[in-house]
Amino acid sequence: MPLVFIISAPSGSGKSTLVKRLIEIDDNLTFSTSVTTREPRKGDVEGESYEFITKEEFVQLRDCGKLLEWAEVFGNYYGTSQEVLVRAEQQQLDLILDIDVQGAAQLKERLPEAVTIFVLPPSRDELANRLRNRSSDSDAVRERRLKDAGQEVLNYEQYDYILINDQLDESLEQLRGIILAERCRQHRARSDIKTILKSFRDGDDTK
Ligand code: ADP
Ligand code: 5GP
Relative to the CA of 106, which ligand 2 atom is closest? Predict the structure, then answer.
């Protein structure tokens, strides 16, 4: 079973940027590409950022039980297909998902071992700047995202880790630190430990 990392944040906090950089430096991690009914944004790559599908296609996937979790966010549907977990398992890679708080709660119910990380911007003003600088959303969309952020930040308590994304390089280091530390947790290293202990038993000539 792959280690599953869930990352959530108010829109514009920088989580896609962080996850993209993390994937580039961690060969044992793969990104869960979601399906969505939202329109592609400037810079989105089909099949990489998302699989862009119609509402009818989404409803069909959902109603056939092919989604691990799904949610309606800012008037669009987003979901994680069951396939991404199967593929990560086959490839023996850990999986990182960028999903909203509703999806994170659903997934944590199904996969209680999943590690959750919440990204906060340093302030509301900085979030507004980042949304403006991203310049790929209309004014109305941007306003809605900023308004909803006030409620979203209150969900931080449900997450295992909080990452305040101020300086990007520092945040990336912290995120990488979380991933590495979680891989070292004793119960996850059990099969490796057994092999090492066995090598001591086998090599002990006093026994
Ligand atoms: P999200 O995925 O959380 O919606 P993005 O990754 O798209 O956010 O980031 C929103 C904008 O903020 C982008 O233009 C990105 O380049 C910028 N950004 C991300 N992290 C930082 C940071 N630490 N400092 C300044 N700008 C950042
Ligand atoms: P955006 O439109 O900015 O790419 O994403 C909007 C929100 O949808 C973000 O909070 C993002 O984490 C969330 N999101 C993206 N994919 C999924 C998904 O598969 N499931 C859920 N529940 N949320 C998602």
Answer: 22
* pTM score of the predicted model: 0.94
pLDDT at 204: 81
Residue 68 and residue 107 in contact, taking contact as beta carbons nearer than 8 Å:
yes
Give the distance (Å) from ligand 1 centre to CA of residue 69: 25
AA identity, residue 78: Y
What domains does the chain contain, in order, with CATH numbers?
A: 4-202 (3.40.50.300)
Per-residue model confidence as pLDDT tens digits over 41-78: 888 999 999 999 999 999 999 999 999 999 999 899 99
CA distance 65 to 13: 31
Q: Is any atom of ligand 2 closer than 6 Å to the C-beta of 152?
A: no
User: Of the bound ligands, which one is closest to the alpha carbon of residue 144?
Assistant: 2
pLDDT at 191: 84
Give 185's Cβ-side CA count (13 Å radius): 10
The ligand whose atoms approach the alpha carbon of 8 most closely is 2
